[in-house]
Design a protein that fits this description.
- The protein contains four helices and four strands, in the order E-E-E-H-E-H-H-H.
- It has 111 residues and is α+β, with helices and mostly antiparallel strands.
- The chain has one domain.
- It is flat.
């Protein structure tokens, strides 16, 4: 069973994650890239470094950590593969008819 928006505290920081599978001790992050765009190059680098440090803190507290972006979600298989590699067991069979509708969604198209 996964839990949304779980907070981890370590090393003087409090970090909230998108998904946490307690039994598997696995964190999942759904990434949007806009948060990394800074006001200038130095700000952008600082944001990326800060996120890498956050991820490292979180990785030290769990068994597995995985992330995906919107494209992986909409194509389904990449997200499924990431979750499986992270040790997340599927709880029910995929609903292929519903998943097939994602192929026609504008966000599913590769850019």
């Amino acid at each position: 069973m996964r839990t949304l928006k779980v907070e981890f505290s370590a090393e003087g920081h409090s970090d909230r994650v998108d998904f946490f599978w307690r039994r598997a001790r696995t964190i999942g992050e759904s990434d949007g890239y806009g948060k990394y765009a800074g006001t200038d190059v130095a700000d952008t680098v600082a944001r990326v470094v800060s996120e890498k440090q956050r991820e490292d803190r979180l990785r030290r507290q769990v068994r597995a950590f995985t992330r995906w972006d919107w494209a992986a979600t909409m194509r389904v298989d990449p997200l499924d593969e990431r979750l499986a590699r992270a040790g997340i067991a599927r709880v029910r069979p995929p609903q292929h008819a519903l998943l097939a509708t994602l192929r026609h969604h504008p966000r599913s198209l590769r850019t």
